[in-house]
Amino acid sequence: MLRGFYGAAAGMIAQLQRQTMLTNNLANANTPGFKADQASLRSFPNMLIKAMNTEAGPNGQAPTIGHLTTGVYLQERMPNFRQGDLMETGNNTDISLLQGIMPPTESGRPGALFYTIQNENGDLRYSRNGNFTIDGEGFLTTTEGHYVLGTNNQRIQVGNEEFRVNEAGFITNDLGAAVAQLNVVYSDNPMQLVKEGNGLLRFEGEGNLPTAIGNGAISFQLQQGFLERSNVDASQTMTEMMSAYRAFEANQRILQAYDQSMDKAVNEIGRIG
């Protein structure tokens, strides 16, 4: 009976974690460039139950009763880097990154492209959120004030919002002078990127991600005045949230049933003698 408590509690914890993940996805359904998280549930290893203090079987061992499951857990959360839909805004500071042909990878999963961002500590981070702005010194930044970098990982000073960006990422200012080229980098294994918040991703591999500029096996297109929308499917997320809630409730009822049985075993059966 005590094992049943643990199994039901494990199921409740797993569904609670899944519900938290889905809630975060839904909350970011309108965040530009946001990539929805996906989760996988796994079961703990089964236990083999044998009868104790009984006569040995034909092979000299205790009789086997059977297998006992020991609950489930949320194994991992993985972002889905599928391309989001494009939305026209008309703002010069909004730039969308549209992926084209991507080379095959060893894992079989498609690679992904990202902007290069410098955070407040000067470290390189990556993002798909092209909702940029101009700071007081005329530098191109994210809405949180992180610098957007060019091909040499230098900050890009555009001066004002009257700059232009072509499909290859070359930037010219309001006077028509060349300023820089946006650095677009490529990851053949996006699962090595970890979300840090504010649309930033940290690379967990060695070194930094390589640039996609000049790579003939990769094609992409930058579009000024457009934003990549979140790839969260709101209706599907709501359905999954209801499923997680019902699974949580089912485990809760099982836990209550075990609790009532334990109450009878302790307070009623114990009084019979």
UniProtKB/TrEMBL annotation:
GO terms for cellular component: bacterial-type flagellum basal body. It comes from the Bacteria. It is found in: Bacterial flagellum basal body. Keywords: Bacterial flagellum, Cell projection, Cilium, Flagellum. Residues 112-172 form the Flagellar hook protein FlgE/F/G-like D1 domain. Residues 223-267 form the Flagellar basal-body/hook protein C-terminal domain. It holds the Pfam family Flg_bbr_C. GO terms for biological process: bacterial-type flagellum-dependent swarming motility. Residues 7-35 form the Flagellar basal body rod protein N-terminal domain. Its main location: other. Belongs to the flagella basal body rod proteins family. NCBIfam families: FlgEFG_subfam. This is Flagellar basal-body rod protein FlgF.
